[in-house]
Amino acid sequence: MTDGLWNVLSQNSAFARWICDFTAVPEGERTILHWFFLQEHSKHVMVEWEREATALMSLVRGRAMRERHGHELMAVVDDLRERSPDAERIWASGTDLLVQGPSRPMLFREPGHTDPDRPDDEDHHVRLTITTLAPVRMGDHHRLLAFLLPEDHTAPAAPSGPCPVCPPG
């Protein structure tokens, strides 16, 4: 579950295994935005990282313009732009606004197969359906993100240890 600033408020064990265990991330950086732009592992997990990062920045730009707490979101963006050349480049490119529905596919690598320098790892790519459930009550900015595996997918065994291509820490 996230809030309107993409702070991760709760997660289950599958999310921790496939994406990130946010309980191990410093408290002020437990956001989807920080994960995308400050965690090198996001580029390993997200097969189409550039496309997804650009789409995320488009959503951020649109949300910052239309919400009354847009200044809080812009403070996060400004911090990311200072710390991440990718965030700065994508923000400065003036990404078009993206309007997307509540569900869309995203291509991930299975846990334990996250080396983006291996072009032959396509048999470990999984197209997850990401469904965003948002409340309709005014003022409630919480969102529940569901990452749905294809029906015929058999989950791999849990990897033993950290990502082999990410620096420790």
TrEMBL record:
<feature type="region of interest" description="Disordered">
    <location>
        <begin position="103"/>
        <end position="123"/>
    </location>
</feature>
<feature type="domain" description="MmyB-like transcription regulator ligand binding">
    <location>
        <begin position="3"/>
        <end position="95"/>
    </location>
</feature>
<dbReference type="Pfam" id="PF17765">
    <property type="entry name" value="MLTR_LBD"/>
</dbReference>
<feature type="compositionally biased region" description="Basic and acidic residues">
    <location>
        <begin position="110"/>
        <end position="123"/>
    </location>
</feature>
<protein>
    <recommendedName>
        <fullName>MmyB-like transcription regulator ligand binding domain-containing protein</fullName>
    </recommendedName>
</protein>
<dbReference type="InterPro" id="IPR041413">
    <property type="entry name" value="MLTR_LBD"/>
</dbReference>
